[in-house]
Design a protein that fits this description.
five-stranded antiparallel beta sheet; 2 helices; 5 strands; elongated
Length: 83
């Protein structure tokens, strides 16, 4: 029984939490973050940081200085709130 403890502990340490990709791809979670900064990585690998203006489950609108841009769900690889 003791020989199973070490591999189990290693797995728990290496994979502390798993969030499904479908949950991360949901833009509606940014509705609560209006006015806060987020980072978006587009399908070409370019990271953009902007302030959330509006968000729905299909797209998110960010403000970059004076410019605004709408990001569609299909064009985004990753989107995270900044802390």
């Amino acid at each position: 029984m003791g020989f199973l403890m070490l591999p189990t502990m290693i797995l728990i340490i290496m994979f502390p939490g798993f969030t499904p990709a479908s949950a991360l791809a949901e833009f509606s979670r940014f509705a609560q973050a209006q006015g806060e900064e987020v980072a978006i990585v587009d399908m070409f690998g370019t990271e953009r940081i902007g302030r959330v203006i509006a968000a729905s489950h299909t797209n998110v609108t960010l403000e970059f200085g004076r410019a605004t841009r709408v990001f569609e769900h299909a064009d985004v690889l990753k989107a995270d709130r900044l802390r």
